[in-house]
Amino acid sequence: MNLPFTYKLHTPSQMEPGKKYPAVFALHGIGYNEEDILALVEDLKEDFILLGVRGHLPYENGYAYYYMKEYGKPERVRFDASIQLLTSFIDYASFTYPIDPAKRYLIGFSQGAVLSMSLALVLGDAIRGVGAMHGYIPAFVKDEYPLKPIADTSFFLADGQFDPIFPVTIGRENDEYLRQHSSSVTYTTYPVGHEISPENQRDLVKWLHQDSLKGGEASRGAS
């Protein structure tokens, strides 16, 4: 398979034959790379399969999954393409590695958060949970995309009290919208700007660990 993405993989050092593991697909912000976002969940590397996915487009000293007309307005053609490419990548990774299809998680910062929440709406219960930090859901995703139910998808939402790019009002909109569709939403505002604080990181790791221990026996749909 000719993959559109470069990615970094961490697997538990002592993997049990025949065992399926929870997985985190980590999406970085614009101008960053897979190493930056993957570092947030390094503490889970003995219990999860971790995949840091590098954006396929160059941007300044890093990468992007799509470009923007302006903040809050993605370039639609490239955004749509990234949703399709990331969906295919999740399918590929789930087939290639011993990933539990009932415990697939997306985490993302900024642009990665935008994509993570959007992918959850598109893939429905094929995604167990989403950790979205400092992002939003584009209006065209809510209004024009074919959306699937996310009642059983868990969400960890985080934003910054002093974020100059995505103010707290956007975080509240995410919370309100997702609570209408999901039965499990955690939302926290941290006293930071457009960044992930150590406290945010600790809370994210704790949430992923605890959520992965819940049930999961019932099979979720493949993406």
Automatic annotation (TrEMBL):
Superkingdom of source: Bacteria
According to the UniProt entry, its GO molecular function terms are: hydrolase activity
Q: Which UniProt keywords apply?
A: Hydrolase
Q: What is this protein called?
A: Phospholipase/carboxylesterase
- SUPFAM superfamilies of this UniProt entry? alpha/beta-Hydrolases
Q: Which family does it belong to?
A: Belongs to the AB hydrolase superfamily. AB hydrolase 2 family.
The answer to whether keyword Hydrolase applies is yes
Domain Phospholipase/carboxylesterase/thioesterase per the UniProt entry, residue ranges: 75-208
Database matches in Pfam families: Abhydrolase_2
